[in-house]
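[Meeting: bench + compute handoff]

Bench side (C.D.) handed over the final construct sequence. Compute side (W.E.) agreed to return the predicted structure before the next meeting so the bench team could plan truncations. Sequence as handed over:
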Amino acid sequence: MQVILKENMVSLGQVGDIVEVKDGYGRNYLIPKEKAIKVNPRNIKLIEHAQKLLEVKINKDRAEAQEMSKKLEGQSLTIYRKSGEDDKLYGSVTAIDIQNGLKEKGLEIDRKKILLDSSIKNLGTFKVPIKVYSEMTVEIEINVAKA
């Protein structure tokens, strides 16, 4: 049985691929779980159309990501915190603090895209990567200063 994949599947292929599977696997698993559809002229046209739309969306997202990376490039952010001895902070600076600081500058970034390994617990200057797109990251400078 030939099916067109609607999802990426490690063992079979990528979205839109036409693959040959055993009849039972296709009928009992792939098609009912909507992971694939049967091959026929109508479904082939549907998948081709969906791939074109996906390609347009990917290009649009990539262009938006490039714009955002240009805005973020060279940005620095100063965050003020109370600190004790040895420049240790009371509390820490987290991705949410960085997100709020960027929002004040007019840059909307999802906090999940701020790739902070662990929260910042000392005064100083830190480079923090921000994932703008799947393969595109930009580093911004975070300066944690004494309040």
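W.E. noted at the follow-up: The longest helix spans residues 41-72. C.D. will use this when planning the next construct.
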